[in-house]
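Reminder to self: keep the SMILES exactly as supplied, no canonicalising. Ligand is flavin mononucleotide.
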Amino acid sequence: MADLGTTYIGLTLPNPIIVSSCGLTGTAKGIRQCVEAGAGAVVVKSLFEEQIDLDVSSQQEHSDLSSHPEASEYIQQMGKHLGPSAYLKLIQTAKRENQVPIIASVNCVSSEWWVDWARQLEKAGADALELNIAIMPRSPEQSCDEIEKRYVQIVEGVSKRIEIPIAVKIGPYATSLPALARALTRAGAAALVLFNRFYQLDVDIDKLTPTPGYQFSTPNEIYQPLRWISVLSTVLDCQLSGSTGVHSGKEAVKLLLAGAQTVQLCSTLYCNGLERLGEVRDELDSWMETNGFASIANFRGHLAQVAQKEPETFERLQYIKALTGVG
Ligand SMILES: Cc1cc2nc3c(=O)[nH]c(=O)nc-3n(C[C@H](O)[C@H](O)[C@H](O)COP(=O)(O)O)c2cc1C
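Structure tokens returned for the bound complex:
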């Protein structure tokens, strides 16, 4: 068996396969089952900033849920059963019961006072904090600069208050992802999680109402994180964790070759059960054995280095080949 061990934002993991923040990691039992299934680390289901706001103020008007449809939906669905105090207890229990790193997660949209609350997560024993920042631009008055500043302020605000490492999970939409990524790194992000997969909007054409779109990814969605991890892994001073579209060992290998430090799984576990986790890990192991790699460090980032040599030619050439059918 190959050595699958790795580090991620200063933590030691038995393997690079992390269960990403989702309903499967929202209870102590769920987290335990993920670890038993072979997870290298677990990101706990996000606590939404609005939940912290609601819990502390107990006044609905302090919380503008309309600014965040994903949170509103989530809180309605979950009946707010997991408020901040329950969340802290969940982190404590998960830490006590499991040997792998437990990463807390907060979904944030503002850079307000709530960042102080991150300290409590640290005190509860979280090994790291993943900030899932999802600001949905709606108004033409809002410039990208303004929005990106908020991302950076959130990370700066939290990193000033806590010692544990911070990973920042973002979506794929930015005019210059490298510039945003570097700003987040300078603000204190030890890793970027690329990418969050946003709530999908669909329409019920009989009832003429909006409905949630299909919740889960497919393996074809790997291409976006794959491209950006291969571009960013050689130019940033932070680590990258690949998320979206990892359904088998093949996708995990591709992201690691692109330079990811870890990969995160969610949809495939919902669709195929938690045992899929062990299968992905075994597929990674068997690929390493077949290709003569004794450890992940032996091949991580290999593709990114190839692409780095002549990035313009590489990208442009593939693009022209695809459009002209020549090549
Ligand atoms: C049911 C469900 C709940 C999720 N909840 C969260 C969440 O609370 N916080 C978060 O950062 N991401 C959440 N996600 C996004 C996943 O962590 C992951 O980034 C996304 O599903 C893409 O990965 P995948 O292709 O492996 O599914 C959720 C996804 C699903 C399907």
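Points to follow up:
The CA atoms of residues 138 and 290 lie 49 Å apart.
Confidence is low (pLDDT under 50) at residues 58-67, 75-81.
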